[in-house]
């Protein structure tokens, strides 16, 4: 479904809505322990939906961890999830379950990096509110 809002004879807003089922990518779930298959760990993220827990971020968490879908299901393979939750915005990526502040490596100008690193430190504060990464779009 596509809609356009017209004001004064000109289009001022456009909205497109898919009729297909929404994708899982980026969704956050409280996972239930699932089955192990060799070194792989699967977790249940929804009724009848299992996901592959990506262990590259560290050890497998116990209990019912929060996970975020990092790769959609593809060709019959389960979606991939991670315990490293990331909420990405245009200028900042917020990590609610970690601490620290960093600046994107793509920002090469040392003075700009230093200024943004100081800003990131002030935003992140004492680390109790989560961690952040300032993205390269903030360079301007």
Give an account of the 3D structure.
The chain is mainly beta and 140 residues long. The chain has two domains: 28-82; 87-139, no CATH class. The protein contains one helix and twelve strands. The protein has one helix at residues 110-124, and strands spanning 2-7, 10-16, 28-30, 32-37, 40-46, 49-53, 66-71, 80-82, 87-88, 92-95, 101-103, 131-134. The protein has a six-stranded mixed β-sheet, with no helix packed on it. The chain has a four-stranded mixed β-sheet with strand order 9-10-12-11, with helices on one face. It is flat.
List the helices and strands and how they pair.
Elements lengths: L1 E6 L2 E7 L11 E3 L1 E6 L2 E7 L2 E5 L12 E6 L8 E3 L4 E2 L3 E4 L5 E3 L6 H15 L6 E4 L6
Radius of gyration: 20 Å
Q: Provide the succession of SSEs.
A: EEEEEEEEEEEHE
Helices, by number, come to 1
Low-confidence stretches: none
- How many strand segments? 12
Q: How much of the sequence is in beta strands?
A: 35-45%
> Please, how many domains?
2
Describe the structure concisely.
Its cofactor is Mg(2+). The protein is 11% helix and 40% strand.
Defining traits:
single chain, 140 residues, 2 domains, six-stranded mixed sheet, four-stranded mixed sheet, 11% helix
């Amino acid at each position: 479904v596509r809609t356009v809002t017209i004001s004064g004879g000109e289009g001022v807003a456009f909205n497109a809505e898919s009729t297909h089922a929404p994708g899982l990518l980026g969704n956050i779930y409280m996972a239930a322990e699932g089955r192990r298959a060799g070194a792989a760990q699967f977790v249940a993220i929804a009724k009848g939906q299992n996901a592959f827990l990506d262990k590259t971020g560290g050890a497998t968490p116990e209990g019912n961890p929060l996970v975020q879908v990092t790769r959609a299901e593809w060709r019959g393979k389960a979606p991939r999830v991670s315990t490293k939750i990331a909420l990405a915005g245009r200028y900042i990526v917020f990590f609610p379950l970690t601490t620290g502040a960093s600046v994107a490596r793509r920002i090469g100008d040392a003075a700009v990096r230093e200024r943004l690193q100081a800003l990131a430190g002030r935003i992140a504060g004492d680390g109790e509110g989560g961690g952040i990464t300032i993205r390269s779009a903030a360079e301007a």
